[in-house]
Structure formats: C-alpha cells, structure tokens
Amino acid sequence: MNITAAFRQAADRLLQPDCDFCGNPCSSGQPLCDACHAELPWLSAEYHAPLPDCDETVSAFAYQPPISNLLLGIKFGKNLRSLATLGELTSNGILPQIAQIPEAILPIPLHSRRLQQRGFNQALELARPLARTLKIPLLTHAIVRSKATLPQTELDSRQRLSNLKQAFQIASLPPYHSIAIFDDVITTGTTARELALLLRNQGIRHIAIWSCARAILRQKHELTEQIDYHVQPTQ
Ligand SMILES: [Zn+2]
C-alpha cells in the first residue's frame, strides 16, 4: 500500500470510528453504532419519579444488561475505555430530560480508603462529560465520606439508613442554590438521599439526583433479583 492510500485509509477510520460494543463503523463523534445505541435500555420519563428529599431524579438507563455488566466491569476491572463511553452515553441520556441546569455537579464521594483501593471514583468519571457539556464545575472536594460504610446492598432498609448516618461531611461547599448529585447506580436511593438531606440543611434550594442507571422494579419479586445482582464486596 502506498503512502497516499494508507493515509486515506487512516483518515477514513478517524472519520468513521468503530463501535465500542460491536466493532461496526459508527457515525463520527459517537461511541456506538446506531444499532447498539438503539438497543440500550434508555430510561423513559415515566421512570423518573423523584426520590424523596430531592426535586428531580433523572437516570440515563435502566440498571440491566448491558449497562449493569459494564458498570460492574468498570468497578472491578478498571476498564477506563468503557468508563469514558458510558460517561458520554449517560450525558446523552440525561441532558434532554433535565428540567433545570444546576450550578454544579456533586459526584457521590468514595471513602478515601476505597478510593485508594480502586484508584478512581466511577461516579466522578461518569459525570465528567455532563459537566463538560453544561460548562459547570464538578465538586470533588466539597463533601467527604467520613465513614467507611458497609455495602448498602447487604442491609435492609432500616440498617441502610443507620449505616449511612453521618457518612458524609461538608468539607468546603461554595454557596450554590442548585446542585445535581450524581451516582453511578440508584437502587433504593438511600445514599443519594442522605447526601441530599445534608445539602438541604446547608440551604441548597434545588437538588437533583442524576445517575447513569436506576434499578427499575416492575414487579415486587424483581426486588430480590436486582439487589442480589447488585451485591458487591467493594461498593
Ligand atoms: Zn455497535
């Protein structure tokens, strides 16, 4: 192959990158091909019932394959390529559905020990494209997780609340009026609500809770499956 042909092939490839899921060509600037994009479990507005203690709850996806598998893989395998793709898709899913642009995004912090073990906070990484597109700051040092809590999925609802009591502390919170809390997955929402209450007590008027995925329980029996599926030792 001569240099011109090689250059043309490289340029074509740049203009039409491969789908991160199936490898087929996809439109420029998109991480997935149209078919894979359409197959994702995008969450429709009817599932955006606000959690108590917040004004708005918006998630990009239902917590089900392939999103659930990707999130678990990221958590354990440190697959940063999936993390970037999922962050872009999350941003695409959330932005058209928000009622109000917040002044800042607060990714739910990890306890310092867990952050050290994992090397990154997946909530922070997933929220980056949202903050970039909206041109608002990501609050990475406003709140600290002062207590190394037990994995929420191993507890019943009452234990969940006491497990999280005073789990978060204000470190340095600028005087915002509206903040979007961001988590990777919302199951019962207890963690996000604990943080929302803390923000409310600081005078934040509009609190949104955004997430990449939300566990959707259509039938009561699904609760056990979903939560069992979500059990993980290092959450
Ligand atoms: Zn594809």
Describe the secondary structure blueprint for this structure:
Elements: H1 3-15, H2 34-39, E1 56-62, H3 67-77, H4 80-94, E2 104-107, H5 112-118, H6 122-134, E3 143-145, H7 157-164, E4 168-170, E5 178-186, H8 190-201, E6 206-214, H9 222-230
Parallel strand pairs: 1-6, 2-5, 5-6
Antiparallel strand pairs: 3-4
Helix pairs in contact: 3-4, 4-6
The protein binds zinc ion.
Mean pLDDT: 82
The number of domains is: 2
Q: What shape does the CA trace take?
A: globular
The ligands found in this model are: zinc ion
Strand order of the largest sheet: 1-6-5-2
CATH architecture of the largest domain: 3-Layer(aba) Sandwich
Number of separate strands: 6
Uncertain segments: 219-235
CATH topology of the largest domain: Rossmann fold
The biggest sheet amounts to: 4 strands, parallel
User: What's the CATH class of the largest domain, please?
Assistant: Alpha Beta
- Assembly level: single chain
Number of helices: 9
Radius of gyration, rounded? 19 Å
- The helix-and-strand class reads alpha/beta
Strand content: 5-15%
| Helix and strand pattern | HHEHHEHHEHEEHEH
Measured between the Cα atoms of the first and last residue, the distance is: 51 Å
The helicity comes to 40-55%
Question: Can you tell me about this structure?
Answer:
This protein is α/β, with parallel strands linked by helices. It folds into 2 domains: 11-40, no CATH class; 42-230, Rossmann fold. It is built from 9 helices and 6 strands; from the N terminus they run ααβααβααβαββαβα. The protein has helices at 3-15, 34-39, 67-77, 80-94, 112-118, 122-134, 157-164, 190-201, 222-230; strands spanning 56-62, 104-107, 143-145, 168-170, 178-186, 206-214. The strands form 2 sheets. A 4-stranded parallel sheet has the order 1-6-5-2, with helices on both faces. It has a two-stranded antiparallel sheet with strand order 3-4. The radius of gyration is 19 Å and the shape is globular. Mean pLDDT is 82; it is low at 219-235. Zinc ion binds at residues 19, 21-22, 24, 32-33, 35-36.
